[in-house]
Amino acid sequence: MTETRTNYAKRLECEQLAAAVSWPCSFESRRHAGRSSNLSRQLRLIASKEFNDRFRSGWVLACVLVWLGAIGLTSFLGLLQIGRIGAQGYERTVISLLNLVQYLVPLLGLLLGHDLMVNEVEERTLRLILAGGLSRARFLMGKFLGGCLTLTVPLLLGFTVAGTAVGLTTRDSSVAPFIRLAVSGLALGIVFLGLGLMVSTFSRTRIQALVFALLTWCLAIFVFDLVGLALLVSTKSPTAAHEIELICDATHVNVAADVHSEFDITTNAKPRTIEPTSNSSFWLMLNPVDLFRAANLETQLGFNVSLWTSLLVTSLWLVVTLGAGLWKLKQTDL
Amino acid sequence: MNPYLQIRQLTKKYGGTVALQEVSLAVERGQILGVLGPNGAGKSTLFGCVLGFTRPTKGEILLEGHPLTDEERTSFGYTAERVALYPQRTVLENAAFFGALKGLPITEAERQLARVGLQSASALKVRQLSKGMLQRLGLAIALCGQPQLLILDEPFNGLDPALLDTLQSILREEQERGATLLISTHTMSALEPLATHVAVLLRGRLAAFDTIDSLQAEFGQSDSLEQVYRQIALQDPPMEEVFA
Fold first, then answer.
1. Tens digits of per-residue pLDDT, A26-68?
2. Which B residues 209-228 touch A at CB under 8 Å?
3. Backbone angles phi, psi at A50, to 5 degrees
4. With the C-alpha atoms ordered A142, A145, A150, A153, is the resulting torsion angle positive or negative?
């Protein structure tokens, strides 16, 4: 009987799922297969399944559209309040996009990560996966890599397409700030994906995980800065005041980075720089959102966040969140 | 020579509740061990410990004399009492995925689906399957890759007579191939023609473990497995006496 096109497509996907590698069928011959090849195959399987599931559910496409729309609209309508319509150059697009990215990307990461583990536990599919010889560490890593892929594809697609459109329209060749925004935004999303995954391993139900994920988002985006300001007010420490002014206070950051001020005829507001102190890195390590903000406002703040600091902080956050997630997963009886 | 699977002094506690208490048993290759006991006796916990999704509080599980590792579980097959798969994916996709985790090609998944009579349903979504079809799919996934140890948790529940015959003949074929089977069930009539050994768990403790013939001889006048089980269960004091 002739195979229908749909069945053929499904079959093809299954064959890809089965890693397109000819593996010996009997256990006796399989047991000699290398550990590392098993590791990469299992990670690839879990990650690709996660991505395929999200792709089918429309998540990936929705994210691509959101990013294209957000970047395009921000760039083309970003100066609407001063009566201008049209594409802005990369630097202005970056400043306009900064708030959107710092709010939306962590939320995407957390929403993506919050049900990665708890879903498998609630649906009881994790039992069958573990019974098949997959270790908990490999499963967690596979899920994390799948989440990274699901986050990376729409973000990079959105940034690439919209960035190209901005460049072609404005003939702006100084693309470095835009690339830095895309890469640091992606890193920010991955850190929050790790946080979401940790939340997922610590939660008993999907609803609980969603609540914790949203609380984490509020904590990182709003509460951290407010608590910092409260500390400043209560202690009146000049050093703390300086640190918080530098990193946390959104109003001052916006003044420092106010690219629209040159069009503002009512005030003489000028972008200003704030001298950093040695404690700045400590504050940046506490909240990846602040690190992201500081890394993208280097010129405006006159504050240099080194690549090594960024890599170190990102790695530390991932090690802590994934480590805590693995510890909890290993303690969990299914 | 070491037995194929050896469980030593296995204890599992959930807080103050003892689910398994110092259970020790050994199974040789090719044996079929029926694990019997009332609900909550610890059968699924015992299987969970062997399969790695329940952490023992104490004791050890040895495979051919050495501690069981995750890697070695790729040679195991398992069906749960309530088969849980990915409902939005098709029968073939589910079988292919779980087979691929063990390093098996898609042809192996297709072969096992045909064996349990699900070949024509391979394009159906799992959420569209009846309970019987779902159980068959669970069995097909467990059979992928010629497992050395098959662990079946209540596999006979809710099966119609024709399906029961099919399942029994498949399990016999697996035993003849050399696989070791652990089967928990309340349907003793279905287990009796298959099992070589029986373990009875009562409140987490191993109340009996031997061949069916030896147990029948020990509990005289018992000519069926069900009667043997009832005799053993009678030895266990009722719950009220334990807590008195």
1. 444 444 445 557 888 899 999 999 999 999 999 999 988 888 8
2. none
3. -60, -45
4. negative
